[in-house]
Amino acid sequence: METEEKIEQPTPKPERKKNFFLKHLWDFVLLGTLLIGTASVYIGRAIVNSKDSNKDIVATVLFEGNKMEILDSAGKNRNPINLADINEYEEIEIQGRHTTLTIALKHNSICVKESGCPGQECVHEGWVSKANHPIVCAHNGIYIEVETSSWSDIIQG
Amino acid sequence: MKKKFTVKQITLLAMLLSLALVLSIAESFIPFGIPGLKLGLANMVILLAIYYFGFWVALAIDILRVVISSIAVGTFLAMGFAMSMAGALLSFFVMYIFYRWFKAFTPVGTSVAGAYSHALAQIIVGVIYLGNWGVFYYFPVMAIASLITGTFNGFIVELILQNKYLATAVGYEKSKTS
């Protein structure tokens, strides 16, 4: 009897391997559905955005959903910033919820150069020069919207 | 909660909480360049706690983990705290629902669902806080990353649940999962 048991014991291993896909069938169905769904949204958006590349862009700095007031040397509000008009590199400082942010501007590009936030995700985002790519500093409640000039013209009338 | 915990269970519970804490603090130092994108290693511990100890204990570990780790990292009651708390809670409830009522899913599916809802909750908090739907720009990348990490974590949890020594120490019946 003992010898028979010893021979039978190793069999469960291959069975388990066989059932691996069956066991995880629903997991893979869920994974596949979520993956295909999300990827199609991502690819669809990339196709739409590719039409807007190489166009002049406008950046709007929002603080907790409201347009921020950014004054130029003449005391005028320059927000939204028309990045097509900027020919020289310049830096502006804005006050977020917790810390200040240094925003750098150049022709058709914008980036957050420095921020006091712990994650530094906004700084890691780097230079943004294409429309529909926002820069977010969640810690400071800052959201920089980047759109094509024509699009913001339509909004502003 | 009616049943009394054995010393072994209490010890394991404390170990799970400290493991969750260490993992969430450690992964907060790994930058990915995208807000809220993390490996979700602590989620693995929460999933394990759901299988081992059930609803209340896992919920307690989850909340304590977020609160204590945010105090340690220095983001307590700040934006990051709201995001991780929302993510932790939503993913916990989704994982529990999958564990309790969707028996067709193994820990892998449960973990994937939890990770995906974690990403979703963080984006929703971002939308509310910043008052702009444009935050959804980050969602596809975060979601796809969460699916990868979720699958990875799920398989690890499945392997841990197969450990007989740990299961007997916790008093965990394997029949619950299969």
The CATH homologous superfamily of the largest domain in chain A is termed N-utilization substance G protein NusG, insert domain
Shape of chain B: globular
What count of helical segments of chain B does DSSP give?
7
* Strand tally of chain A: 8
Overall CATH class of chain B: Mainly Alpha
Structure report:
The complex is a heterodimer of chains A (157) and B (178). Chain A has 157 residues and is α+β, with helices and mostly antiparallel strands. Chain A is 36% helix and 26% strand. Chain A is built from six helices and eight strands; from the N terminus they run H-H-H-H-E-E-E-E-E-E-H-E-E-H. In chain A, the strands form two sheets. In chain A, strands 1, 2, 3, 7 and 8 form a five-stranded antiparallel beta sheet that branches. A three-stranded antiparallel beta sheet of chain A has the order 4-5-6. In chain A, a hairpin with a 4-residue loop joins strand 7 and strand 8 (142-148). Chain B is globular, with a radius of gyration of 16 Å. Helices cover 73% and strands 0% of the residues of chain B. Chain B is mainly α. Classes of the chains: A alpha+beta (157), B mainly alpha (178).
Question: Outline of this structure?
Answer:
With 157 residues, chain A is α+β, with helices and mostly antiparallel strands. Chain A contains 6 helices and 8 strands. Chain A has helices at 2-8, 12-18, 20-23, 25-50, 121-124, 149-156; strands spanning 57-63, 66-67, 81-82, 90-95, 100-106, 109-115, 135-137, 142-148.
